[in-house]
Amino acid sequence: MVRISIPTLPPAPLVPPSALTLLAPKQAAAYLARFLDEGKGKTLVITGAGVSVESGIRAYRGKEGTYSNPNYKPILYHELVEDSPRGQMFRKRYWARSFLGYPPVRDSLPNPTHIYIAALQALGLAPNLITQNVDNLHPKARNLVSSSMHTPSSPSSATSTIPPPYPSRILELHGTLAKVHCLKHHHNQPRDDFQAQLAELNPVWDEEAKESERTGRRPRTNPDGDVDLQGVDFTSFVVPPCRICDPSGKDTTAFVKPNVVFFGETIRPEVREESLELVQSASRLLILGTSLATYSAFRLLKLASELEKPMLMISTGPSRADPLPGLEKMDREAGPVLRAYLDELVRTNTGPEVDAVRRVMDMGVVKVPPEVEGPRAEG
């Protein structure tokens, strides 16, 4: 039997801060400006859970790279899909916990870093993005910036030096919690529809969810929407099968799972191929808020290194990619560097895209997870 464990980082010796890490904020922003300028509109951004912490969503790993909640045991893919009474209990446990954990993720709002990354896309400086996050916050941020672009702006005689933006792309490498699908015939449906089914079939749990909403006292939520509950009996929780497969709800073999990649599950081949193609077509990579502990993301930087593409990482704590040739790293939070860069950019440029970015720069919402144990985290 293959043993599956939660990805973590190998021990690494402490090293002194790099010259890039020690740069003052304005100099760090200037370095980023040169990096993006040399990318000529073909820089690829890769993000991890660290960029979503300020939206109230905890990351898996702490600043030192270790698993931030060692007592948490997520459901593995083979457990979720096991066709047996044991598998049924795993599904009850997962969906009961996720039923409580999904609303905070669903209701979360883009924080400033999400807005700044969407701005890079809108300006055509880094049009393509690969995210490991399943929280739907990058699409929300892009929609905010896109809506701002349709707001009329005052005419200006100044000439913009920003090139016309390229079509942008967001690839959710590990899927999204906003959708669910059945494993029998691969029917897709919005997560909110399935959430409503769970509420209807589990009124006691629904009342608990509403009470959590009213009081704001929610159990610890992980980035995948699962919550940490101790000593709870999940036996009575009802998990419906896919209603598209069988509206009567009697087909117990039509298992439903969220559109996310579970531990022990492989990424769909088409997603893997697209991620590799985005790296191959990029001129360089900008990596933000991630430790790259999962191989699905690390292999993208490994490929970029083999192709001798420049890479700049702005993230706190150690990462799996630190030893890769061609990787430069600022061990610091990405948001302030991006903000300093964009402040200078909108000050010295004009045009509809620049005006749109100027209007949304302060729309990010910060909501740090309550009772964060230990240092700020990266994913």
Would you mind describing this structure in some detail?
This protein is an alpha/beta fold and about 375 residues long. The protein has two domains: about 25-55 and about 125-175 and about 265-360, TPP-binding domain (Rossmann fold); about 75-105 and about 180-260, no CATH class. Helix content is about 35%, strand content about 10%. It is built from eleven helices and nine strands. A six-stranded parallel beta sheet has the order 3-2-1-7-8-9, with helices on both faces. It has a three-stranded antiparallel beta sheet with strand order 5-4-6. A hairpin with a 5-residue loop joins strand 4 (about 175-180) and strand 5. The protein is globular. The model is unreliable at about 65-70, about 155-160 and about 370-379 (pLDDT under 50). Belongs to the sirtuin family. Class I subfamily. It is found in: Mitochondrion. Keywords: Mitochondrion, NAD, Transferase, Transit peptide. GO terms for molecular function: histone deacetylase activity, NAD-dependent; NAD+ binding.
